Amino acid sequence: MKKVGDDKLRRKVVSFLLVTLMMATITPVHADEVSEPTTAATEVTTTETKPTTTEKKETTHHKKKTVKKDKKTKKKNTKKDGKKKSKQKEKSKKKENKKSTIPMPKRAVKKKGCDTVQKKIVKMQSKIKKLQKEQKNIRKEIKKENNKKEALQRFYQQYPTEREATMKLRGQKITPLTKISEEDDALRNRLFSLANTFHDDQLRKIASEYVFGVRDLNFEDLLNEDDTIDLNTYLKGKYIAPTQNMQIGIKNKDQEIQKLKKQIKEEKKTRFFDPKNVNSISNITVDDAKKMLSGTQLYPEAEAFVKAERIHHVNAVFLMGIAAHESAWGTSRRAREDNNLTGYGVYSDSAKGINKPSKEEGLLATAETLHERYLTPGGSYYEGTSVADVNKHYCVGNEWAGAVVGYAYQLMNKLN
């Protein structure tokens, strides 16, 4: 019986132990008593979870860096965007300016051998030929006079003194009672010879109707003046004409010829307008300027434009273009009241501008200012020699240069 009871006790103890072991595995209070395999598993899980915390730290740190980078990039982007916007604004402004401004052509215009110039040259050449012909005729007359002088000198050689010539050449009309001596016939023959030399019918008539030589001084006083003739006075007055005036005439015509030749030389020069360089001389003449300005209120000042170019070396066509634009071809109030054709100094209605006693003086003053201040290096407004360069300080806005050049081209076209 005892043995059986001992076995029962043993069984109860074993079952108790098994129950306790099972409870130990289930309850977390006794987690420290868990077997090694389970702890290893937990260690693995814990070691795997630890990196997640570090990763979070790293990601947060990375976020801070990215935030800083984002701020920098945003600043850079804003700067870039600002630059782009400013560039776009500048481009839009330029486009607007281009739209609002008249385009400034840069083509240089040359007029050489145009119809207008050729006609003037032909006209002057015909004048020269006419003057040369007149000179030739005068020289022929001088030669005739010299021949007459020589012939008269030979005629007078027979009279030793002037008094004797005066006495011998006093003639009276032949009457039926007149006796003609051999001396009278000899003198008559010499007079006929002079008449043939001089082609003088009147002298031939005198030789045939008169006898010469005073035979009776007392009787001479009784003669009617209509019946007597002083051949000495007649010959010297008609045939010893002064050739000095003729020589002066030749000299005057020669001066006129030289003047025309000089004008032809000027006419043959190329008329020139270059909007890139208004210091270049146009070579236009006063006649050219009159043709270019015909039909406008600027016509009376044609010579003044050419004079301004000659004195101050500013292209005359450029000056005409300024005047056409600023004064509406000479009709503006400033042109009429202030003699200001170029609008210089008129920045507003109340501005004084140039006020001169005459339009010519106003043009000369503008040309002088342009030359010294705008077109000469070192000048207070010097930017270059083009019309666009002058525009920068001459007038507000960019339309001025294009308008002036347009008028200059229009004026040059009139020389065709």
Description:
The chain is mainly alpha-helical and 416 residues long. The protein has 3 domains: 2-89; 115-244, no CATH class; 270-413, Lysozyme (Orthogonal Bundle). It has helices at 2-26, 36-100, 115-156, 162-168, 182-198, 201-209, 217-222, 231-239, 244-267, 286-293, 302-312, 316-326, 333-338, 359-374, 387-394, 399-413; strands at residues 109-111, 170-173, 210-212, 228-230, 271-273. The strands form 2 sheets. It has a 3-stranded antiparallel β-sheet with strand order 3-2-4. Helix 3 (115-156) packs antiparallel against helix 5 (182-198), helix 5 (182-198) packs antiparallel against helix 6 (201-209) and helix 11 (302-312) packs parallel to helix 14. Mean pLDDT is 79; it is low at 26-65 and 217-223.
Strand order of the largest sheet: 3-2-4
What number is the mean pLDDT? Answer: 79
Percent of residues in β-strands: under 5%
Form type: rod-shaped
